[in-house]
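Table S4 entry, Response regulator receiver modulated serine phosphatase.
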Amino acid sequence: MTEVKEQLLTEHKINVLLIDDQPMVGEAVRRMLAGEDDIDFHFVSDPTKAIPTAEELQPTVILQDLVMPEIDGMTMVKFMRVNSKLKDIPLIVLSTKEEPTTKAEAFALGANDYLVKLPDRIELLARIRYHSKGYINLLQRNEAYEQLRESRDEMRKELAVAADYVTSLLPDPLKEGDIQADWRFIPSASLGGDSFGYHWLDDDHFAMYLLDVCDHGVGSALLSVSAMNVLRSQTLPDTDFLKPDKVLEALNDSFQMDQQNNLYFTMWYGVYRKSDRTLTYSSGGHPPALLIAGGEAKQLRTPGMIVGGMPDMTYTSDSVIVEPGARFFLYSDGVYELKKVSDGKMWEFEEFSGFMEGTAGELGKPIDQLIAHTRELQGRELYEDDFSMVEFVFA
């Protein structure tokens, strides 16, 4: 993972630029600001050099006279406000008299303040500091936003790498044999903790499993991968992988949430015995798997707590006979827990189950039909949670 570093915001000193054709005004303002250690003062008397000087200095506030030779002060205000480098810098216009119509025009063109020159020193300092503070806050806010954007982009890169890593560990589809399998895995934008697998334990027993870690992000994905790896390599100590309830108990003991950054997972684990077509299964807090035969869906789930929630938990197993040609779906809750764009309500599980009963086609097509339907239901392509589903067909 990318190391997260604390980034400090840039400290900005108050930087004043006075634009006035009268050197005596420049000297008067310089004396007013003299002795103020937090203020740097700059003066330009040639209005034709005002824009390039301001671009170079990047002041925190500009004081600008409205009456100057060679250029009209109001025109100068316009130039300041259409210049991409200067448009946000506070601009205080200076005039020789208080004229409501002149003030209204200056404000309409984008001036931030209006002073009759020469103002009282205390008032001038107060206005300079007030406008500079607001502009410095804007600069720091923009800087913080840019840091956040960069951090977000880095996190997105990390999540994309993690999603690719999880995908690389998923099993290849099985297109031939006594059991065929195909799957779809669509990571959410924040990447959840879904992973799944299947493999032959011996010539007669086929294991299948799917787990879903709580929360999102790289940490959840890594825990999911760790659990999947011990299942795939069968490295849980003193565990009979032919007994689903014992597998969940061993996982629960090995992945206690207080040792996993308070992360836990739900899981479904099953073993199909080819010789007598028996599917034995156990689940911990996970949605029921769907076994569809004759157009009807049977929900396969056993009572059991989340995996990793409490030590020394006991899980139970159940079994079912699988008819030839039956379809079996293993999935995470991200495939059906979505909000319908039509009425803002959640799609109910029974609606999801009913939809799956009506799917048909070659291996993998029912999942594609579900993806198309759920994207239409929620009105967008991406999912709030990982979309993970595996389809098995039993010969």
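The chain has a mean pLDDT of 91.
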